[in-house]
C-alpha cells in the first residue's frame, strides 16, 4: 500500500475570512447564505482539497482549501462554505487516501478530480485521458505503481452554474404512450453536415432550427443520444483508409451524470451549455415534442484498471464500482471494462439525484436507460429479483410522470425483454426488431411471430402484467444498420473503425436484393424502396410505441457500417440533400405517422380481443400458421361502426390475390396504402382513399403490403369520408 506524495499545504480553512465549515447536504455545490457550499462524499479518503481556477487550462489554482478532517467532515461527507463564488467559477477536487489496488483503493492526490454532482464541465479541445491515469505505465506492475505526475493543466474543471432561466409557461407534456412517436437522433450529427441549412450546425440551437421539420414529420418525442458530458477524444485508433484519428461520436461513456455536453453549445463560455440545453427543451415543448434522454448509468469513462482517474475512481473506487474478488480488477457486465455498483445505497441515491436533476432543473420528459439490466445487479454481479434501484426509479415521487425505457439486456447475457422490473418500465423490444426484419426478408416460419409483434407482443409482455405500451417497437436504432443499409447490405462493413471489421454484430437479418451497397440498377432500387415501405408500414400499424431512427425517413446511409460509434464524420451525419432525393420515402413516412394518428385503434394501450381482430389467409380461411413456408396473411381490424381496416402482408416471392371480407351495404373497400405502388398512389391522404374496383379480391405483388378501409363512398370527391 502506498500513500500519495505530500504536497505543500495551505493554511487551515478555519483561519480564513469568508470560509466556514459548511454543510454535508446537499451533495455537490449550492449557493446558500451569501456564499457557496461544496460537499463531496468519500468514505475512505484521508484528505480532501478543493481548488478554484480562473481558466479551464490553468495548471495552478487561484485559491486552495484543504478541508479539516474534523471541522469539514460529517460522516462520509467532506464540506466547506466559501464566500465570493460567482456563476461560472471553475473548481475541482484532490482526494487523498491509500493507493492499494488489490484492496480496491486507488486514491491519488496528484490527480485533479471532477465533482460527481457537477452540472457542467469546462470544454477541453484535446482532453488527454492518458495523462489522467492514476498509475505509472512505465513502472513494473503498471497500475500497481502510483503516478507522481500532476495533470491539472490537461484536466477539464467543473463549472458552478447559477444563472436564472425563464421557463415561462413551460410544463411537462405528458403525452400518453398511445400518442407517442419517438425519433432517435444525435444532437451534433443531426445538423453538423454542410447543407443542413441551420445557422448553428451541430448544436442544441441547430436542433431547435429543425423543429419545423420534426413537427411536419409528425413525431411527438425526440430521444437524444447521450448528452451527459463525455470525452470525444478518448478513441485512439485511426481510420486505416484515410489515416484520420477516430473520435468518440456516440458518447456512451459519461464522466459525470448531471453535466450537459459542452461542445454541443454554440457558445464556448463555461456553463453556457446549460442555458442552451434549456432553450432547446423549451422550444421543443412549445412544439409539443417531448425530450427523452438516452442515459448511461451502468459504467463510466474510467474503464478498467488501465483507464484514467477522472472522478469516481479517485473519490471512492470501492464504493462506486463493482469489483472482482481480486479488487484490483473490475467486474465487467457492460463491455467497457467497468460496472457501476448501482445498487449500493450511496450510488443508488446518486443516480436518483441525477435523474431528479434532469427532470426538475432541465425539464426533460423521460429517459432511455442504456444496458438497463446492469442496474438490476448487486455488488457481486447477480441479477436481483426486485432490484432496489429499478423499483426506486419507478416509484420515485419526482419521476412518477416521466417516461422510463429500459434497454433490457447487458453485455454478458442478461436478456429481460418482457420481464424487466415492474409495469412502469417500457422496454426496447429487440424481438420486435428481429422478427419484423426476418419476416420481410422472407425467412421461413416467421408469420406467427410477425402477427404477434404487430398486435403488441402479448406473448412477450402479458405474462408479467405489462401491456403493449411497454413495447418500444423499432426497426433500427443508432446501434446497427440504418433502414437504408438494412435493405442494401448483406454483411457489415466496419473497416473504417480500425478493428479489421471485427466489431459490431454479425446478426443483422439484412439483405441486399442483388447488389452489396449503392447501385443504379432500377430493379434492385425498386425492391429496396418497397421493402423500406413495408417495414415503415409495419412499424406504424403495430400496437406498442414506434421509434424511428433519425434519417431513416430519407434513407440515411452509413455505407454498411453497423457500429459507427467512432465515426464523427459524413458516415454518421445527416445528409440534408437526401430528403429531396428520397422525397417518396419522406412522404410515405409522414403519411404513415398521420395514418396511425387518424386510426387510434392501432395504438390502443390494450391487446386486441378476438372481437376486434380476425385473421385470414389469401382465400378467406384462417392462415396456415403451422406451415413454415407460408409468408402471407391478412387481418381485419374493427375500428368502429363506420370503419374497419383490412391489412394484407405478402413477404413471399409470388403475387397473390386476397379475397376481401364482405362489408355493410352502405360501405365499400377503399385503398389507403399499397407499398407496391409509386407515389402518390402508395399512400392516400386521409379522406382521399380510392375505392377498390374489384369487390371480391385485391392483388398483392411479391414483397408488398396494403391497407384497405371499409368506408362510406363520397361520390362528390371520388374518394371517401369516414
From TrEMBL:
<dbReference type="Pfam" id="PF02922">
    <property type="entry name" value="CBM_48"/>
</dbReference>
<dbReference type="InterPro" id="IPR044505">
    <property type="entry name" value="GlgX_Isoamylase_N_E_set"/>
</dbReference>
<dbReference type="InterPro" id="IPR017853">
    <property type="entry name" value="GH"/>
</dbReference>
<protein>
    <submittedName>
        <fullName>Glycogen debranching enzyme</fullName>
    </submittedName>
</protein>
<feature type="compositionally biased region" description="Basic and acidic residues">
    <location>
        <begin position="494"/>
        <end position="505"/>
    </location>
</feature>
<feature type="compositionally biased region" description="Polar residues">
    <location>
        <begin position="506"/>
        <end position="522"/>
    </location>
</feature>
<dbReference type="InterPro" id="IPR013783">
    <property type="entry name" value="Ig-like_fold"/>
</dbReference>
<comment type="similarity">
    <text>Belongs to the glycosyl hydrolase 13 family.</text>
</comment>
<dbReference type="InterPro" id="IPR011837">
    <property type="entry name" value="Glycogen_debranch_GlgX"/>
</dbReference>
<dbReference type="InterPro" id="IPR013780">
    <property type="entry name" value="Glyco_hydro_b"/>
</dbReference>
<dbReference type="InterPro" id="IPR014756">
    <property type="entry name" value="Ig_E-set"/>
</dbReference>
<keyword id="KW-0326">Glycosidase</keyword>
<dbReference type="GO" id="GO:0019156">
    <property type="term" value="F:isoamylase activity"/>
</dbReference>
<dbReference type="Pfam" id="PF21156">
    <property type="entry name" value="ISOA1-3_C"/>
</dbReference>
<dbReference type="Pfam" id="PF00128">
    <property type="entry name" value="Alpha-amylase"/>
</dbReference>
<feature type="region of interest" description="Disordered">
    <location>
        <begin position="494"/>
        <end position="526"/>
    </location>
</feature>
<keyword id="KW-0809">Transit peptide</keyword>
<dbReference type="InterPro" id="IPR048650">
    <property type="entry name" value="ISOA1-3-like_C"/>
</dbReference>
<dbReference type="GO" id="GO:0005980">
    <property type="term" value="P:glycogen catabolic process"/>
</dbReference>
<keyword id="KW-0378">Hydrolase</keyword>
<dbReference type="InterPro" id="IPR006047">
    <property type="entry name" value="GH13_cat_dom"/>
</dbReference>
<dbReference type="GO" id="GO:0004135">
    <property type="term" value="F:amylo-alpha-1,6-glucosidase activity"/>
</dbReference>
<feature type="domain" description="Glycosyl hydrolase family 13 catalytic">
    <location>
        <begin position="184"/>
        <end position="596"/>
    </location>
</feature>
<dbReference type="InterPro" id="IPR004193">
    <property type="entry name" value="Glyco_hydro_13_N"/>
</dbReference>
